[in-house]
Specification:
The complex is a heterodimer of chains A (366) and B (151). By secondary structure, chain A is α/β, with parallel strands linked by helices. Chain A has twelve helices and eight strands. Classes of the chains: A alpha/beta (366), B mainly alpha (151).
Chain lengths: 366, 151
C-alpha cells in the first residue's frame, strides 16, 4: 500500500508536535545550569569563602539529580520521628494543632517553623505543607514544627459573589473546619501564640529557640516574611516569644508587597488594630525590611513563570533589601510556576532544598 | 543527499536498534546499581536515562515508518510498537503520579514506600519493553518483506 500525501502530513504533524513537547519539557533542564551559576554567585557574595569551604558531606551533593527525580529524594526515615496533631491553642471557637518532626537524640535542635500556603483562605498543615520537605530537614537534625493558624472565610466578603461561594467549596475539601474567620493579623497572632507555647515547652520539644528558621509557602511565605522581619518590631510587640531568635527566613514565592487594589479582598483580610493604610504597611515585607531594627538573612525562592505571585516585584524587593545592606538571596527556579516544590522530588524541590540547607548551615555558623 | 539516504537505509536502522538496546540495557543496569546510593553511579544512570528515553521514542517513530503493515510479521511488529508506545506513555504518566504520591501522602507519620516501589516497577517495565522491542526488530530485520527498505 502506497503512502498517501495525507499520511505523510499526518505523520509529520505528529513528529513536530512530539518534538515541540520534548523541547518544551527539556527547556527547564537546559536552563538549570545558567540559573544555578546565578544562585551560586549570590551565595558567594553573601557568605564569601564560608560558602566554598562549607562542609557539605551531610547535604545533598548536587542541586539536581535525574535519578532522584525518578525514584524520589532519599530521606533517612530512621533518623527522626513524627508526632502529629498536637494541640497548641483552643480559643473557644477553634482548636489549632501542629505536627512535630523530632530528630533522634536529646538536642536541643535548631528549629524550623513551617507555615502552609493557601492564599490566607485555604490550606492545612501536613499534606498541605510538603511533608517530604519537613521530613528531609528533620532527618538532617532540624526540629520541624508544621502548624495550623486559621484561615479567612471568603464567604464573609459579599463582593466576592459566586467566586467566594465556589471557593468555599474547595476550602471545605482541603482546609480544617474552622468555626471562625481569621484575618491576617489574627493568623499572625496564632503563629505568635505558637512561638510562646514553644518557649514554654522548649525542653519537652528539644527545641533550641536561639536558632529558629521560619519557612513558608505562598501566603505562608508572606506570613513567614512578616514573622521574620517583624518579630522584634514594636508593631508586633507582645505577639511573639520574647526569647525566640530568628536566624533566617526562607520564603517560597511570597507576596512581599501588599498594595491597595480595587478588589475588596485585601481590605477585608487586612482589617485590624490600625487604620487600613497602616495595616497594609504593617503586613508588607517591603515596609518592614526598612523599618525593623533586626533583619535576619532572607532567602526567597520563586519560579520565573509564577502566575500567582509577581516574580519581578520580588526581584525588586531583593534589590531593595540588598540596597539597604541586608542579606537577601533570591533563587530563581527556571520555568518554575507557583508551588514548584509541591512535588518535592522534581527539579524545583531539589534545587530549593540544595540551597536552603546550605543557607541554613551558613547562617548557623557553617 | 547520499548521507540522507544512509539514514533511511537498513544498515542505519540496524545500528540504531543496537545502540538503543545497549543504551536502554545500560540505563536499567545503572539505575538498578544506583540503589547502592553512590552518587557517581546515579549520575551515570541519569545520563543514560536522558539519552535512552529519546532514543526509544525515536525508535518507535522509525518503526511506524519502516515496518510493512501489509505483511503479517510487519503488522505484528507494528502492534508491538503500539503496545510499547502505550506502555511508555502510561509508565511515564504513572511515574509522575508516583512522584506526586511521594509528595502528597496525607499522614506525616507514614513512610512513602508505595510511591517509590511504584516508580521502580514502572521504570523497569518501560525499559524492558524498549529493550524487547529493539531486540524483536533486530531479529526480524533479515526478513525482507516485513520491512519497507529498498534492498
Amino acid at each position: 500500500m502506497k503512502k498517501t500525501r495525507l499520511d505523510r502530513i499526518g505523520a509529520l504533524t505528529i513528529i513536530i508536535i512530539c518534538a515541540f513537547m520534548l523541547i518544551i519539557a527539556f527547556i527547564p533542564y537546559l536552563l538549570i545550569l545558567y540559573r544555578l551559576s546565578d544562585a551560586d554567585n549570590q551565595m558567594l557574595q553573601a557568605f564569601g569563602a564560608k560558602y566554598t569551604n562549607l562542609d557539605t558531606s551531610n547535604m545533598r551533593p548536587v542541586p539536581y539529580s535525574i535519578y532522584d527525580n525518578i525514584f524520589g529524594v532519599p530521606i533517612d526515615e530512621g533518623k527522626f520521628s513524627v508526632v502529629s496533631d498536637i494541640l497548641y491553642l483552643n480559643n473557644g471557637n477553634d482548636s489549632f494543632y501542629f505536627d512535630w518532626y523530632k530528630p533522634n537524640g536529646d538536642g536541643p535542635f535548631p528549629v524550623i517553623i513551617a507555615i502552609h500556603g493557601g492564599g490566607w483562605v485555604i490550606g492545612n498543615k501536613g499534606g498541605g505543607n510538603v511533608i517530604p520537605f519537613n521530613k528531609y530537614f528533620a532527618s538532617k537534625g532540624y526540629c520541624v514544627f508544621d502548624l495550623q493558624y486559621g484561615v479567612y472565610d471568603v464567604t464573609k466578603i459579599p463582593e466576592m459573589g459566586d467566586f467566594g461561594k465556589a471557593f468555599a467549596l474547595i476550602t471545605s475539601l482541603i482546609t480544617p473546619k474552622y468555626n471562625s474567620s481569621y484575618t491576617i493579623q489574627q493568623q499572625l497572632e496564632n503563629i505568635g501564640y505558637f512561638t510562646k507555647v514553644l518557649e514554654a515547652n522548649r525542653t519537652k520539644y528539644h527545641a533550641d529557640l536561639s536558632k529558629v528558621f521560619i519557612v513558608g509557602r505562598s501566603a505562608g511565605g508572606h506570613l513567614a516574611s512578616i514573622v521574620t522581619l517583624g518579630y522584634k518590631n514594636p508593631l508586633f510587640a507582645g505577639n511573639f516569644s520574647s526569647v525566640m531568635n530568628i536566624l533566617g527566613g526562607i520564603w517560597f514565592y511570597p507576596p512581599t508587597n501588599l498594595s491597595k487594589s480595587k478588589s475588596p479582598f485585601f481590605d477585608k483580610l487586612l482589617q485590624g488594630s490600625l487604620p487600613l493604610d497602616q495595616q497594609y504597611n504593617k503586613f508588607s515585607a517591603s515596609f518592614l525590611v526598612k523599618n525593623s531594627t533586626i533583619v535576619p538573612p532572607m532567602m526567597i525562592l520563586q519560579g520565573e513563570k509564577d502566575g500567582v505571585v509577581n516574580y519581578p516585584a520580588n526581584l525588586e524587593f531583593q534589590k531593595y533589601a540588598k540596597g539597604l545592606g541586608k542579606t537577601c538571596i533570591f533563587i530563581t527556579i527556571p520555568w518554575g510556576g507557583h508551588a514548584f516544590d509541591i512535588n518535592f522530588q522534581t527539579y524545583g524541590g531539589q534545587i530549593s532544598t540544595y540551597y536552603i540547607e546550605r543557607f541554613m548551615a551558613l547562617v548557623l555558623g557553617g | 543527499m547520499a548521507k540522507l539516504e544512509f539514514f533511511k537505509s537498513k544498515r542505519f536502522f540496524k545500528y540504531y536498534l543496537s545502540i538503543t538496546a545497549i543504551t536502554l540495557s545500560l540505563t536499567l543496569f545503572f539505575n538498578a546499581l544506583g540503589a547502592l546510593g553512590q552518587l557517581t553511579i546515579q549520575m551515570i544512570a541519569g545520563v543514560f536515562t536522558v539519552i535512552g528515553v529519546p532514543l526509544l521514542i525515536i525508535l518507535i517513530l522509525l518503526i511506524f515508518s519502516r515496518a510493512n503493515r501489509n505483511d503479517d510479521l510487519g503488522l505484528k511488529i507494528i502492534r508491538i510498537n503500539y503496545l510499547t508506545i502505550i506502555i511508555v506513555c502510561l509508565c511515564f504518566s504513572f511515574l509522575v503520579m508516583a512522584g506526586l504520591l511521594n509528595s502528597f501522602y496525607r499522614d506525616p507519620t507514614s513512610v512513602p514506600l508505595f510511591g517509590q516501589l511504584l516508580s521502580i516497577y514502572l521504570f523497569v517495565i518501560c525499559m524492558v519493553f524498549g529493550i524487547g522491542l529493539s531486540i524483536v526488530c533486530y531479529l526480524t530485520l533479515s526478513i525482507e518483506k516485513a520491512w519497507l527498505f529498498q534492498s
